[in-house]
């Protein structure tokens, strides 16, 4: 059976990023995949980025997977063995969250082949995608702020494991009660309109993404 792993790099387990990942997971499940969600900001998950131990580069050692003994070790092993991997993150200061970036360091570096940079150490080829959520109103502004360089560079690295893609969700709703916050540049009426009209379309795109990735993985 196809195994699909979904990584939530948002501190919020039930908001925009998590909801899109959940729909992608439902799509993968409907395509027959065995699915799992990991929340990187779970209080029971204590980890850091790459610790530069170089265990993944030792001759005769275990290649292609981070073996640093912390709470992320088992997650990394499942990520490497997955047929489908979907990561999600909001945009924080022009980058994915620190939690997701740490995860990506731990996933990518063991695959970097110091003996042949052109041939990464891939334990298992996989279909992958990254879902980004943000205040940015549209793709034109996203690119004007160079987010396509800052954010997409991280996401495209998943391409060393096989076909990868990116799904954007723009102008997302941030607060349940905007009146509590100093956010004059973010009119609630406009945000609510996008939430009611555009976000459901993004959820459908996420569902189709998950279903497509799982179907493609099943077909090999």
Question: Would you write up a description of this structure?
Answer:
The protein is of the alpha/beta class. The chain is built from 7 helices and 5 strands. It has a single domain (3-211), classed as Rossmann fold, CATH 3.40.50.360. It has helices at residues 16-30, 73-81, 98-108, 139-144, 147-156, 188-197, 199-219, and strands at residues 3-8, 34-39, 84-90, 127-133, 164-169. A 5-stranded parallel β-sheet has the order 2-1-3-4-5, with helices on both faces. The longest helix has 21 residues, at 199-219. The protein is globular, with a radius of gyration of 18 Å. It starts with a strand and ends with a helix. The model has no long low-confidence stretch (mean pLDDT 93).
Any descriptors?
alpha/beta; 220 residues; Rossmann fold; 5 strands; five-stranded parallel beta sheet
Furnish the topology, listing elements before pairings.
Layout lengths: L2 E6 L7 H15 L3 E6 L33 H9 L2 E7 L7 H11 L18 E7 L5 H6 L2 H10 L7 E6 L18 H10 L1 H21 L1
Parallel strand pairs: 1-2, 1-3, 3-4, 4-5
Helix pairs in contact: 1-7
* Structure class: alpha/beta
Tell me the series of helices and strands, N- to C-terminal.
EHEHEHEHHEHH
How many helical elements? 7
At CATH's second level, what is the architecture?
3-Layer(aba) Sandwich
CATH names the topology as Rossmann fold
**Rg, Å, rounded:** 18 Å
Please give the CATH class.
Alpha Beta
How many beta-strand segments? 5
**Total count of domains:** 1
Shape: globular
* Adjacency order of strands in the biggest sheet: 2-1-3-4-5
Helix proportion range: 25-40%
Task: Indicate the low-confidence ranges by residue numbers.
Answer: none
Q: Major beta sheet, specifics?
A: 5 strands, parallel
Provide mean pLDDT, rounded.
Answer: 93
Work out the strand percent. 5-15%
Distance between the termini: 12 Å
CATH superfamily: Flavodoxin domain
């Amino acid at each position: 059976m196809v195994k699909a792993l979904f990584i939530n790099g948002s501190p919020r387990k039930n908001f925009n990023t998590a909801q899109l990942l959940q729909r992608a997971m439902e799509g993968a499940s409907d395509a027959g995949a065995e699915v799992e969600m990991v929340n990187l900001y779970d209080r029971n998950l204590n980890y850091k980025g790459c610790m530069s131990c170089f265990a993944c580069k030792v001759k005769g050692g275990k290649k292609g997977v981070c073996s640093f003994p912390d709470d992320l070790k088992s997650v990394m092993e499942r990520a490497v063995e997955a047929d489908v991997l979907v990561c999600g993150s909001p945009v924080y200061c022009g980058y994915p969250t620190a939690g997701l970036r740490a995860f990506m360091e731990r996933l990518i570096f063991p695959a970097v082949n110091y003996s042949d940079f052109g041939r990464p150490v891939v334990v298992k080829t996989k279909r992958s995608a990254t879902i980004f959520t943000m205040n940015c109103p549209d793709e034109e502004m996203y690119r004007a702020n160079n987010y396509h360089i800052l954010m997409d560079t991280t996401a495209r690295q998943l391409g060393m494991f096989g076909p990868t893609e990116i799904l954007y969700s723009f102008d997302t709703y941030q607060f349940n009660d905007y009146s509590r916050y100093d956010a004059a540049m973010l009119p609630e009426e406009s945000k609510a309109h996008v939430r009611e009209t555009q976000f459901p379309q993004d959820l459908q795109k996420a569902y189709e993404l998950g279903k497509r990735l799982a179907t493609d993985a099943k077909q090999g």
